[in-house]
Model the fold of this input.
Amino acid sequence: MEMSLNNVSSIWSHWLLLFLTQVTLTTNSAPRSETSLSLNTTLLFNSGAYNLRNCSCYSPIRECDEVLANSLCRCHTVLRSALPPAGLREPGRLAVWVKELWVLEELLNRSMVGHLLLSFCGMKPIDSQYLVLLGLRTLRIHSAAPEAPYPSQEMIISPASGVAVELEALYFDLSSSFHVTFLDVAVLNGLSVLKAYSVVGPPAQTLSQQFPHLAVPFSLPSPATPDNPTDPSEQTAVLQQNLLFTFVY
Ligand SMILES: *[C@@H]1O[C@H](CO)[C@@H](O)[C@H](O)[C@H]1NC(C)=O
Ligand SMILES: *[C@@H]1O[C@H](CO)[C@@H](O)[C@H](O)[C@H]1NC(C)=O
Ligand SMILES: *[C@@H]1O[C@H](CO)[C@@H](O)[C@H](O)[C@H]1NC(C)=O
Done:
């Protein structure tokens, strides 16, 4: 079957599999497991089963060190029941320390985060499960498990340099695409090297028509209605964006 690269629409009838370029690994050596937050970061961690601590940190804090965070950062408590049900909206840097799984399930899943620093501070290994993140650009993970061979790793999700060049050759405009990342939370155990691949999808508005059985685990912007007076041209623009899915595992 012939596929003309000049005919952009023909691209969407095929899903493309592209491998991201090499992951930037920060290290697996002992001293670097003492990584810390950089300046001016919003830090969220659970304190017990029902509360979340929300801190603004202006000095470096060693990961998973709650005592230090509580004394050096400006923190307040947020009730678990008061978390935004549709996920967080944090285009900048966000650090999350996870000790209990509800933090992933109820706080982070379906969130929009630009730069995520995710630390696992618990004892029991985490089972494989997918976390959906929107608009993610960089990811840093840390595992406090003492035997983890890869305690700290980092990855640029978007724009991944090698992929950008390949996509441009296919007339895919990365800057106007809507990026969805599926993260296997088992990576937080620090047992393997981070890997990723990306798949180019159709425009958001045609996803459900082309893949009626695909349960999209996030809500795409709905068209404007009289009750929802969003600028219709803006809504249409989002719906016409192409989807780029990245799987990190
Ligand atoms: C961090 O925040 C403080 C207080 O808001 C500000 O004075 C400082 O310039 C910020 N530093 C950076 C690196 O953004
Ligand atoms: C954390 O606090 C910041 C600043 O007070 C606020 O903007 C943000 O929405 C809070 N996040 C959560 C999950 O409560
Ligand atoms: C995130 O949400 C999706 C879809 O709702 C669900 O399948 C998945 O298990 C959730 N992940 C976690 C870690 O809770």
Remarks:
- The radius of gyration is 19 Å.
- The CA atoms of residues 60 and 112 lie 24 Å apart.
